[in-house]
Amino acid sequence: MxxxxxxxCVICVGCxxxxxxxxxxxxxxxxxxxxxxxxxxGLCIKACPAxxxxxxxxxxxxKDLPAEARKKL
Length: 73
Description:
This protein is of the alpha+beta class.
């Protein structure tokens, strides 16, 4: 599962453009993630020029994220 720190996101849509599974997309003025589609491949992290994407390997549900990561959602 990935999380995006939206305060630093420049909405370049690079993450969505490289995701082969459609786990990230632009919705309105914010990038939205779909944990059920994410395979933890990390391609989105490499494509992010703002370095605001964090990979939480093996986590598939928001409730299982560390408290600090949930605050940024």
